[in-house]
Amino acid sequence: MPSQENIRNFCIIAHIDHGKSTLADRLLEITHTVSNREMKDQVLDQMDLERERGITIKLQPVRMQYHYKDTDYTLNLIDTPGHVDFSYEVSRSLAACEGAILVVDSTQGIEAQTLANAYLAMEHDLKIIPVVNKIDLPNADREKVSQELVDAFGFTHEEILYASGKTGEGVEDIIKAVIERVPAAQGNINAPLRALIFDSTYDIHRGVIAFVRVVDGQLTEHQEIFMFGSQTKADSSEVGFFRPKMEKAKTLGTGETGYIVTGLREVSKARVGDTITQFTTRTEVEPLPGYQHVTPMVYASIFPVSGDDYPLLRDAVEKLKLNDAALEFEPENIPSIGFGFRTGFLGLLHMDIVQERLSREYNLDLVLTAPSVAYKIVLNDNKEITVHNPAQFPDPSTIKEILEPWMSVTVLCPSNYIGPILEIVTQRRGISKDIKYLGPERVEMMFEMPLSNIIIDFYDVLKSVSSGYASLNYDFLELRAGDLVKVDVLVATEKVEALSAIMHRSTAEVDGRELVSKLKELIPRQQFEIAIQAAIGAKVIARQTISAFRKDVTGYLYGGDVTRKMKLLNKQKKGKKRMKMVGKVEIPQEAFLAVLKK
């Protein structure tokens, strides 16, 4: 077991695509943790999806050994996901470390998540080592980027390291800087066991495997353990560490990072951020701070394209849930589409990844509805209910107020795009809070915006108005009361609950008009006239009419008095009216899906 003074726990934080995983590869290579035979790009990104998209979804720890100045050091690297959806996981990874390598791309400079993750590391009092990466590229601008780091975070030029994760230049200096600058692992070896879960995974044979950092005491195999957050007792059937594959050990000491095989059958019993202690000492120990139950921010419905695949979808979602405690789902049935699941996600990337994994790993053809958010409704008797879709919306006369989630949004972009970005933000009910210049050409813009206006297409529009240069980060701010209404859709005077939507009153008329125009194109014509209306309560705000098929009943007449023509047309009119009374409009599945997918 390594001595506590010689353990360094650190992580790498960066914006997406700034070379975090490539730098981790070089660290593994230089410390001979992975043999040349096993070496491949992005060793720590184990999912095919992570390799294709070049993003880290599931964080992966690894233990490295390095000999420096006649001493053997144990370096525990915890790789972190870089995307805003996983910011809670990032915060728990940081809580398991004493230091962080802040990687910035020398061709792109500081971006939104660089700032967000660096501030998060500062909140956890981590020692930050700034690294300007990708210096081998022809368009690298080391001086400009290092000046940005000095201006944004107050580093000195001497502190900043220059490296290339691709060629390996300067990577040895990073390892030496970690040993010299990052404090040794903290913790009391004689205290009762306290270990922080910073991630967990599910193994079909061994159950839940929790990734832990031992804060106090030590963890041995075949020990009775207890999870504070879920109040669950388990048995540590095996403990060990990552190199990067799992290696069994007898004990994990104070300051070490490793894994415990718990044998539990639900990942939600060993949630990220929870504290593990010995079952016998659970009453004497204070749990570690910062644990929170992650709640989904975005909801969407998933349906199989073929109704026969519903049992397969149910099995697939349940298996995915074993590995992903943040995923929530409940069965849902929309008569015209069939059976599916109303599913809660952390954000849009999380939703995209879940859909991709269901399609790939379980061979399913799926249809996803447009994402929506959860609203909290306070009723007149002060009872609070949470509504995920318009069908659950209570009678408007019983509502006291409706609260919707607002986000604090940070956008980093070149200064010549301020105008277009302010315009798209105000169109989406955003409020501009602050604009800071990070340099002569780069600005940091702060906004407050409703989540419902971010999730549909805000990111795509932001990228297109800024020629792809803007980067975005958002965090939950608060629930705010809003003037929100339920817009019902009536087809031939019958309310179609599945097409209803929750909208802000100021935009309801425009959006309602758009909705009925779209339905007019999608619903096929019938033998009688069909009225499509959008209404708030009893007030109709938009209407379109699909005209009926008409046979030319006067076609065979040749001249004569006009009354003959009128008589035939009136007869046809009566027939159409009678047909309208008994005729039912079948709305095709494509119409539902086109509207639900926005």
Quick summary:
With 598 residues, this protein is of the alpha+beta class. The protein has 14 helices and 32 strands.
In total, how many domains does the architecture comprise?
5
CATH architecture of the largest domain: 3-Layer(aba) Sandwich
Radius of gyration: 29 Å
CATH level-1 class of the largest domain: Alpha Beta
Describe the structure in your own words.
- The chain has 598 residues and is α+β, with helices and mostly antiparallel strands.
- The protein has five domains: 4-181, Rossmann fold (3-Layer(aba) Sandwich); 194-281, Elongation Factor Tu (Ef-tu), domain 3 (Beta Barrel); 298-369, Elongation Factor G (Translational Gtpase), domain 3 (Alpha-Beta Plaits, 2-Layer Sandwich), CATH 3.30.70; 376-482, Alpha-Beta Plaits; 487-498 and 510-596, Alpha-Beta Plaits (2-Layer Sandwich), CATH 3.30.70.
- The protein is 27% helix and 34% strand.
- The strands form six sheets. An eight-stranded antiparallel sheet has the order 11-10-16-7-8-15-12-13.
- 41% of the residues are buried.
What attributes characterize this protein structure?
alpha+beta; 27% helix; Alpha-Beta Plaits; 32 strands; 598 residues; 5 domains; six-stranded mixed beta sheet; Elongation Factor Tu (Ef-tu), domain 3
What's the structural blueprint in terms of helices and strands?
Elements (H helix, E strand, L loop, with lengths): L6 E7 L6 H11 L17 H6 L7 E8 L2 E9 L7 H9 L3 E7 L6 H12 L3 E7 L8 H12 L7 E2 L8 H11 L12 E10 L3 E10 L2 E2 L3 E4 L4 E4 L2 E6 L1 E5 L1 E2 L4 E5 L13 E4 L19 E7 L5 H14 L4 E7 L3 E8 L2 H14 L4 E3 L3 E2 L1 E5 L4 E4 L11 E16 L3 H10 L3 E7 L4 E9 H5 L2 H8 L5 E12 L1 E8 L2 E2 L5 E4 H18 L7 E7 L2 E8 L15 H21 L6 H8 L2
Parallel strand pairs: 1-3, 1-4, 4-5, 5-6
Antiparallel strand pairs: 2-3, 7-8, 7-16, 8-15, 9-14, 10-11, 10-16, 12-13, 12-15, 17-19, 17-20, 17-21, 18-19, 22-23, 22-24, 24-26, 24-27, 25-26, 28-29, 28-30, 28-31, 31-32
Helix pairs in contact: 12-14
